[in-house]
Amino acid sequence: MAESANGSPAFLSSVMEIERATLYKRVPLLQRLDVLPFAVLWAVFLGCFQMYGGESDNELWWLGGGLLAVLQGLFSLSAKWSTQMECLIQCNHVTSCKNANLVCVTPRPNCGRSAVVKLRKPIKKGEYKIPFHFFYQRQKYSIDSTDSKGVCKDLKLLSFPVDNKISEYSTSKGLKSESATDAFKVYGVNTFDIPLPTRFDLFLEQLQAPMFVFQAFCMLLYCLDDYWMLSVSTFF
Predict the structure, then answer these.
(1) 143 CB contacts (<8 Å, ≥6 apart)?
(2) Among 52-56, 156-160, 216-220, whose mean pLDDT is lowest?
(3) What is the pLDDT of residue 107?
(4) How far apart are CA 218 and CA 207, in angstroms?
(5) What predicted TM-score, i.e. pTM, was given to this entire model?
(6) 20-35 in b/e burial notation, b at 16+ Cβ within 10 A?
(7) pLDDT band at residue 53 using 50, 70 and 90 as cut-offs
(8) What is the band of 9 on the pLDDT scale with cuts at 50, 70, 90?
(9) CA–CA distance from 157 to each of 112, 150, 193 (Å)?
């Protein structure tokens, strides 16, 4: 691992893969835009149904309730399909790393997909110091500063000592036991692990796919037209 003059880990100053990184804070469940506004709408809808439900056709009330449920479902699923919608619905924009717990990373074209990742607090173990940082595409990035809009500036990527002279490698005696323990707590194991998703995770991802949601919506439309047997056979 590379180290600076004061013993802290060295970070590359240029990050070519990331175009923008913005700070966010996850809001509580009841304050999310896919929960609180719809809770108010459901309360108004149920109140109107209790007052006027018996005076009109019940099919219109079922249709209104179904449309409201579909609208809330699509609004919630949009957070799974888009990181921008996830930040809009489930997060608040902040300008300080101390108040943030998430980072929305937008890569440059052809450098991966945007993602919302966890912001990790500074680490100080012995002589090793790492500021606020996050992991994106299995790489560690540090945040030196942010602007007034909460956009991360001076992102730095952890570097490794691969350009030193051969004599430095041949004469190196390695780390002492205490330094090795501190370095292990900061850097972790020197492996590249690709976790395999479970069957349930794959099944849940398939259920949240836009094509499956479209098929389920079409199935509901067939049920409204008394074609429930065709809908059930298509679904299963």
Answers:
(1) 21, 97, 103, 119, 131, 132, 133, 134, 152, 154, 155
(2) 52-56
(3) 87
(4) 15
(5) 0.70
(6) ebbbbebeeeeebbbb
(7) low
(8) very low
(9) 16, 19, 19
The neighbouring-strand residues paired with 9 are 3
Asked if 97 contacts 132 with a C-beta cutoff of 8 angstroms, the reply is yes
Q: Which of 202, 83, 203 is nearest to 136 (CA)?
A: 83
Give residue 57's pLDDT. Answer: 64
One-letter identity of residue 91? C
